[in-house]
Amino acid sequence: MNPNVSGDPEDQDDPVARFFAQERDAVRPAPVDDDEWQHIVALSGTRVTRRPWWGVVAGAAAAVAIGVAGWSVHQKSFGEGEVSRGAAVSASTSPTIESFDRAGAPAAAAAQATSPVDPRFTTWSLTYAGQGAMFAFGSSPCRPAGTCPTLLRSIDNGGTWVTVHTFPQADMSRASGGQQPYVQGEKALTEARFALPEVGYVLGGDLWVTGDAGASFTRVEHPGRTVLDVEIEGLGDRRAKVVVLSADGCSAQGCTGPMYVSTATSDGPRALRRVATQQAAGRIADAQLVLRNGQVYVQPTGGGTGPVRLDGGSLTSLSATACGGRPLEALTSSADAKNVLYAACETGSSGGSVRYRVLRSTDDGSTWQASGDQLVMPRAGRLSLASTRDGRIVATTGGPRQPRGPVSATHLQVTTDGGRTWSRPAVPAAPTDGFDWSASPGGSQVYAVSRSTRGFWYSGNDGRSWRVVDPYRSASAPSRR
């Protein structure tokens, strides 16, 4: 071998090698600005995190290093190697060249610049993050996927909005249309929850977390195949309590379990710790979390089972003798009353409407007292109760969830006496299919979302009067990060 020639093929006297060497030498880097980079990333389907808030980024374009105590990111798809889906593994301090989730899709979503709100944005959920920050999650057109889950942000309590992130990698197959199941696919995203203006989650079968106000995201591995809900207690606290509810055995028709309750804190939002497991008694259509007074509750929908309370590492069933064996539904806490819970149970039905008994508890759900029998709502979607303070409750039903027959009641009603009497306030542009959910952050404020319209509904006086908030019409000029 010639000592002045290396062992590389292109340095040998080989015409093919010389051709490729000449071609490589002719390649010159082209300038790429931030917009072009985002376009390339979207078209390639590779979501690269260039500046993750918890890790270190290597200089190469595809080099991503993500490290959080208690978890490690693997190059292989989960299920193909030594790590099973949702399993907690020891921390890894060595960077990886690329991080992929269990299905081979990128586990990191690159930072995106803010942009104007699309006029076709549809609101699916709202979350308040403190310090005037709110986030709206929904759908809007995007490329190359066509329609994508989209996160909006407001920093002035909903006065103005910008788009901060779209998710072209998400599964949209069940997330839109006239009938939308509660349980979404493993890669679906339909809701948002934030603990701080910069720290929050998007969920809906899948689970992603951000630490930079929604600019970039990283997938969170979790017990079970499907995420059902995330709730946070202690908004604005750097160690706010985060609870994740997930399950196995899920399809569009619901979940057969088991269900898993896991916890984390807002200063370590990816380090989930499983604290309880429960096998469902039957197929449930959905399940939601309620956090209040340091307690964690799980409220299933359907399946003939009522809510449970997390007691240590076990889940305790809650029931009320006043319900005559029927399960409690629509469990909620009173936002401005620390020890008060409300729930309802069905007492009869006729003509497409359902009569409910409203109940109140002041001992973490151990005992319940009937508060009223006069709530009559359409049998449509899921019943939601939102309580701003003790005695003041807003009840809603509806949303694009199931076929509906003739409606002889109103989708939104209000009580100021704990449920003994109900009124039907005028609601501007009320959606014909009702409201998918309602909630109160406290201070006489109530929000309601239909999931099938562009805007959402807001009341600042315990639900007595309402106005429609359209993020597009109140959108601000875009700002770049």
Protein architecture, described:
- The chain is mostly beta strands.
- The protein has helices spanning 15-26, 34-44, and strands spanning 56-57, 64-65, 108-109, 122-130, 133-142, 146-154, 162-166, 191-194, 200-203, 207-210, 217-219, 226-233, 241-247, 250-251, 254-255, 259-265, 268-278, 286-292, 295-301, 308-311, 314-317, 329-333, 341-350, 353-361, 369-378, 384-389, 392-396, 412-415, 437-442, 445-449, 456-459, 467-469.
- Strands 3-11-10-9-8 form a five-stranded antiparallel beta sheet, with no helix packed on it. It has a four-stranded antiparallel beta sheet with strand order 4-5-6-7, with no helix packed on it. It has a four-stranded antiparallel beta sheet with strand order 12-13-16-17, with no helix packed on it.
- A hairpin with a 7-residue loop joins strand 22 (329-333) and strand 23.
- The longest helix has 12 residues, at 15-26.
- The protein is globular and about 55 Å long.
- It starts with 14 loop residues before the first helix and ends in a 12-residue tail after the last strand.
- Residues 1-104 and 477-481 have low confidence and may be disordered.
